[in-house]
Write a sequence for this structure.
């Protein structure tokens, strides 16, 4: 690994300013360097919230003895060729050549490094611009230690966050690296106490290390086929694992954890479609790979914001990848525990709804059925709503739009008028023609034939409200609202209608939730019932999902 000084005309191109303003910045830059060195084992140590000590030890490539004196020099790097075009195709996490220099300016830098093929190691001590290099002995790899951070900068030291706050941020940062680089060994030690340890595994194992095994048991693998150099892989949570905030939606671009643009977060949520109720967000860890020239990591001092050449295209690929992952799994949710939460069980590999035998009707709203060795509880309203929604979706464009005998004049709010101008062509494509009549009025000319004869009160008004509402997908919002009104309600259910609902679910493409995101079914295994009743008899055997799982071993 040969280090060279970047010419001034190159350093100016990347002068976004890599400034160490807190211990978190030191941890980030040193971990990036370890990853760029090809390390498979990275250990982070923090003392005093990082102000007393930050140390990152790795088993990467190391720095050759003839280049190590340049390591703490500003704009000295082995990661970027000294030519202008190299700035447009960055392929490493670090590239400015400022990380070690900035750490030496803010604290006392100590570096020990040795390439595996080199006899003897090099030791560098740097404080400000004073650099000392000597020979030493050490294992292959690199250990970088930064002590007494900001001791020579009292104004900056006084504005630092309390140690507990900084440790929390550092733990979260290392956790994100674990999530996006799960195949490495990671260890975070705080004041001599191990806070986070991760052995090499896959994304599910990384979720277990960071968020616990319960979350890991509720994630699905995402592996989208590459389109050119664009690739999406990782995990996304099942619909029942959600949060009110988006703080567990994690993205990386070419291995770099990023602050995701809203378009990517929105793409994941839209990939769930009606599986996800409004106002909540899933857990996801998605690694995006793009061509080096199609992204720019040099738009933020900490390089956490990445500009993408084709953000809409990447978002569309993310949305499709999430949808494909969800479609490949049965998404029936576990019934509430009778005594204690049941142990997680593997779901069957089939993605379709099983054939169920009706056992009975409860409270004229819920169906009790059995199938695959389990007891299923079906919300008849939600299930019927799902079936109606999919039928309307299939029929929406099957026939020409229905022309109203007399166009209907409608009053619109200013927001609805603005959305009409934005969406008019989209609405017309599936048969809904609304013309701006001026002065807050609009004229309804045609309706999709599948909707025109629905027995829904205030049909036209409901269609307009949904089509011109704030939903990003007006078509889905219209159909979801119109499927709800005629669906079976409490008190309308009997055995005959129950059989019809179960049959309708078996032909649904996505039978696991209603169009608004509520589950259609809950599932309870015989084993859970037996354990709840304290049974240990012959009936307490592997059944249902266990049988399916065992048959694949």
């Amino acid at each position: 690994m040969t280090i060279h000084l970047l010419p001034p005309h190159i350093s100016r191109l990347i002068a976004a300013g890599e400034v160490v303003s807190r211990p978190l910045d030191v941890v980030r830059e040193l971990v990036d360097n370890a990853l760029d060195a090809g390390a498979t084992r990275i250990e982070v140590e923090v003392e005093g919230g990082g102000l007393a000590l930050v140390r990152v030890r790795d088993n990467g490539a190391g720095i050759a003895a003839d280049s190590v004196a340049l390591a703490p020099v500003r704009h000295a790097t082995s990661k970027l060729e000294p030519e202008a075009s190299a700035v447009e195709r960055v392929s490493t996490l670090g590239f400015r050549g400022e990380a070690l220099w900035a750490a030496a300016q803010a604290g006392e830098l100590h570096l020990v490094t040795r390439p595996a093929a080199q006899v003897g190691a090099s030791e560098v001590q740097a404080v400000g611009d004073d650099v000392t290099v000597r020979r030493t002995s050490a294992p292959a790899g690199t250990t970088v230690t930064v002590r007494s951070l900001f001791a020579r900068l009292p104004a900056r030291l006084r504005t630092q966050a309390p140690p507990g706050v900084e440790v929390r941020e550092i733990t979260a940062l290392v956790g994100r690296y674990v999530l996006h680089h799960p195949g490495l060994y990671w260890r975070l030690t705080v004041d001599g106490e191990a806070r986070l340890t991760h052995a090499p595994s896959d994304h599910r194992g990384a979720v277990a290390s960071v968020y616990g095994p319960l979350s890991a048991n509720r994630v699905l693998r995402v592996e989208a086929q590459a389109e050119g150099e664009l690739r999406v892989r990782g995990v996304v949570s099942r619909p029942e694992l959600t949060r009110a905030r988006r703080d567990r939606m994690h993205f990386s671009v070419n291995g770099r954890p990023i602050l995701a643009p809203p378009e990517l977060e929105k793409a994941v949520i839209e990939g769930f479609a009606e599986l996800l109720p409004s106002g909540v967000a899933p857990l996801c860890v998605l690694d995006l790979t793009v061509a080096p020239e199609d992204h720019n990591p040099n738009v933020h001092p900490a390089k956490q914001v990445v500009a993408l050449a084709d953000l809409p295209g990447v978002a569309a690929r993310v949305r499709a990848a999430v949808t494909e992952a969800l479609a490949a799994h049965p998404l029936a949710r576990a019934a509430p525990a009778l005594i204690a939460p049941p142990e997680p069980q593997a779901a069957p590999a089939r993605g379709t709804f099983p054939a169920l035998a009706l056992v009975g009707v409860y409270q004229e709203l819920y169906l009790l059925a059995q199938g695959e060795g389990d007891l299923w509880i079906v919300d008849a309203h939600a299930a019927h709503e799902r079936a109606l929604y999919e039928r309307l979706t299939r029929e929406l464009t099957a026939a020409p739009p229905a022309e109203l005998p007399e166009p209907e004049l409608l009053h619109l709010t200013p927001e609805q008028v603005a959305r009409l101008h934005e969406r008019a062509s989209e609405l017309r494509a599936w048969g809904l023609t609304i013309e701006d009549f001026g002065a807050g009025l609009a004229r309804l000319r045609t309706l999709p034939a599948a909707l025109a004869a629905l027995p829904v009160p205030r049909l036209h008004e409901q269609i307009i409200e949904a089509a011109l509402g704030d939903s990003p997908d007006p078509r889905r919002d219209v159909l979801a609202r119109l499927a709800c009104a005629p669906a079976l309600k409490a008190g309308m259910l009997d055995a005959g209608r129950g059989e019809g609902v179960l049959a309708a679910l078996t032909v649904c493409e996505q039978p696991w939730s209603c169009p608004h995101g509520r589950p259609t079914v809950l599932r309870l295994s015989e084993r859970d019932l037996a354990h709840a009743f304290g049974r240990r008899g012959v009936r307490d055997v592997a059944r249902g999902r266990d049988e399916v799982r065992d048959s694949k071993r």
